[in-house]
Structure formats: C-alpha cells, structure tokens
Amino acid sequence: MAEQHGHRDGSAGVGGQIQVGILTCSDRGARGERADVSGPTLHNLVVDRLGAKVGQYKVVPDDRMAIETTLVEWVDEGHLDLIFTTGGTGFSPRDVTPEATRAVVDREAPALTQAMLFESLRITPYAMLTRATAGIRKRSLIVNLPGNPKALTENFTAVAEVLPHAVDIVRGLDTHAGGHGGHGAASGAPATSGADTPRDGSVREGHRHGAGPEGVPASATASAPAAGAGGPREGGMARNVGGPPC
Fold first, then answer.
1. Total domains present in the chain
2. CB neighbours (10 Å) of residue 241?
3. The model scores a pTM over 0.85
4. According to the model, what pLDDT value does residue 176 have?
5. The domain spanning residue 61 has which CATH number?
6. Between the N and C ends of the chain, which has fewer C-beta atoms within 10 Å?
C-alpha cells in the first residue's frame, strides 16, 4: 500500500535520497541499562515515510558536550542531510538536547517545532512541556524529537510531509528548476505552471499555498467530513493526528 505521508512513492525529492542521522540522548540508554526503543522506531519512520537512508545512529548520554560533538561531526564530516535527535527535550535537569542543538546551529527553524507542538496539543496538554528546537547547520537540518516512541511518531508525522522539500532547500538546490513546483513532480503529481500561482503571490519555495479555483482558498472548496464524523481530515495538517482533539 502506498505511504500516505510525505512522498507516496518513497522518492526523496529533487536532490536524491536523503542521508539521515539518528541520535538518541539518554543516560540510561548510554549506560546499557535500558534498550533504545525510540531510535529503532525513528529508523522505521525515516525509511518508510521519507524513503531516506539512515547513515548514522548513536546513543549518547544526556550530556551537552557529547551531543554537540556528535552533531558537529555528523554535519561537518559526515555531511548528513537531516539529523533527528530523540530524547532530552523536557524539563528535567538532565534534559539538555535543545541547548546542545542551539549551540551548533547557524539558524533556527522554529516553525517545525511549532507545527509539532500544535499537533501534539490536540492529543494531550502535556505536549506543552517540551523545549524541542530545530535548526540548520551548514547544509544540514537538525530536528529535536521526544524520547517517548508514541510522542516521537506523532511529532514526526506532523512534519514528515515538508521535510524532503526542506532538505532540498537547505542543500541549496533550485527547487523551481524543471517545473518541479516543490515536490509535486517527484511524488507523481502534475508539475505546477504559472497559471497555478495564487494571485496574492503567496508561492514560497515552490509550494502553492492552498489556492483553489479563482484564488479561493483550498479550505473553502475541500470536502468537509459529515457532521459528527470522527475521522481525521483528508486536507491540511490535521490529517496527521492519530486521535481526537483534547
């Protein structure tokens, strides 16, 4: 069955297959006292939903220097396209993954973590107890994810659709070249043309922002679920939510 999130055909975007690193941050995991579950969970998500290749995987303690050193090495020497950290994003005194990430990135990407938070809050109010961050170092995108496998999956799903396009932009590729129109061509959708451009000029980085016929927002023309229906919506980010709003 075709994957429903990100690139349905498993393609990785304009720039080819994405090279990914997975860094689990856990004191107990690093000491061998607890098996790492979040890392393998994330590995499966990366392969199945992004069609990407996991080039690096490591478990480190909740130690800022260890996290920073690994991130710098994977970017500067390993030249990975996308790095996920898992764990160490909460309020515990030992949770230092966000601080380590901010120390090594050149630019932050706050909308990614905002999107993850928005989706998680629809499931549990405890989602607001995250301090996760995301950012760009050189030609690599780094994203913090929670250590809980269920929360990790929810957060990953919230942003999976945009990650291949984000990686291509960070790589410095011309995502408009060849009529790609973002990743429509890569995923089997028709390439965009000038006639598809919204009249308000809201095209950003190759994506059309919900323009329907004659400039009407897609949300105004999309089919809405029947009253009382409980399933996730087909359009918009809410389709990624596994449970009802809180």
1. 1
2. 18
3. no
4. 72
5. 3.40.980.10
6. N
